[in-house]
Amino acid sequence: MVFTGNEIITLQFGHYSNFIGTHWWNCQEAGFEYIPDTPSEINHDVLFREGQTSRGEVTYTPRLLLVDLKGSLGCLTEEGRLYGVTPGADATLPLWPPDKVTVQTQASEPKNEFLQDLEQAETLASPLPNELKESGKAVPKLYHLDNDVKSWSDFLRPHLHPRSINLVQEYQHEDPSLPFDTFPQGQDIWRKPRFSEELTDRVRLYLEETDNLQGFQVLMDSQDGFSGLGCSALQYLRDEYPSKVCLCLPCQPPQASPLALHKVLNLSLALSSLAELSSLFCPISGTTSGWRDLGKSVQLPFLQYKSDLYYHTSAVVAAAVDSMSLVYRLRAEPERLADLTARLGMYGRRAAALSVMLPFPLRVDATLLDALERWEGPLTHPLTPLTDLQTGVWQQTLVLRGVPESRLMRADQRNMSSSNPAYSCRSLAHLLQTFLQFDSQTTVHTKVITAENKLPTSAPFPHLFLQHISQDGLLQDTSRPSYTGVEKVPVLAGLHSCQSLGHSLETLHSEAKRINIRSLHQFASAGLESLELLESLEQLLCLSELYSDHQMDF
Fold first, then answer.
1. pLDDT digits over 513-538, tens only?
2. What is the enclosing helix (H) or strand (E) of 64?
3. Which run of H or E residues covers position 169?
4. Which of 27, 68, 243, 269 is the most buried (most CB within 10 A)?
């Protein structure tokens, strides 16, 4: 087994977080490059691990622990499909002799066309099939999965290690008679030794494989029982591994109607806990208003997606997360997770905002300078509720991917004699920093990271892009052929510490404070006292006040 150092363990809690995570792992695997003697731009060893099956076959799987409810896996087994172990067996232990075992099988869910092709490609050790068009051109096969995806497992591309999947057996997925939908329910699951001891053992096993673990990145559903379960796990990580960093992404899935009162309380309890337990947390929602009245879905100018489909909205979030995480995944001069969280979480401001421009609008015949000179409106669109990135941004990191240095500016632009400082820039990062310096006078510090790798958006990424986005993700005047999808795109993503986060957190505090906890029997019966809730809300209010005007000392 090969160790490289700077590893990170990923944990995912909840069905929507697993949708996001699945897109994220798909994008990473689609970006693998197999070029002898040429290291890839991205160091995949940060989030992936090398292993070996009992048959001596080398494997490469995410260093991942995910949690979901019983009945949520669709056609996937709890052990995954990589090692071919008997369901329930530990892949690290020898199997019983076949004549001593009685196997009871259960009919599995039917596989969609993508999973069938993926299974066949793995059997034949070949890539996914192409389609031959009338023009004689072979193009990647298009899959239309909007009506087929019921679970995140319906579009999972990479193999998972048998220890990755952890199911909450006490609750059934989508069971209205016994929903897993309150913060205390999640805390109660963690108190059960069967669950917590198994999960913590698996964390320890991953940690023992690493050379120099940086810490943990945690995705968690923030408005149901997984909010309490995720925060309980974070409490364990903080107690057991106090020197390790915890970057947390609490996720709010799309919802057409206003949130029920108990979900607002879940959100409030989760974020107030994360203010203490995480090194940095970034609330994520695909809506403009939030928290209770979610408002419209975030509108990105070059996308057309269905805001009611987890499959679609999670792809947008995953594109932002994958691009933002390049900060600590690049092979050349990566920023350590501890440095990133410390810089953006200065002065106790542990909440940050995530934003994205998907795709970054670069025309097929244009340079970055051309794009910025024609730019109108915000550079990126926030995925964190009630945040304004036009003013009051103190610290931010931006990642521009998929634009090569050769696209900086044309030769005639480079040789122009002008008072415009943009013409003297000699790198993409310098040009973008210069643009931001004049675009926003309130930004104290901006760090720009660039990478040539575009975001892979091949199957099973959903078809979100408008027709005038080319197969390579560039803007063009003509529509791409109907039989071709968008294979990869440039992206601009950002992580920001900004004043509007104070207003966002204060709004959540105000909405939660109006709720009478005694009217919600789910919380009262779980033993959550009014005083305990008030203390949590006070902590949330104190965090929001760190973003006020009089706290802007740098």
1. 998 887 888 787 776 777 788 899 99
2. strand 64-70
3. strand 165-172
4. 269
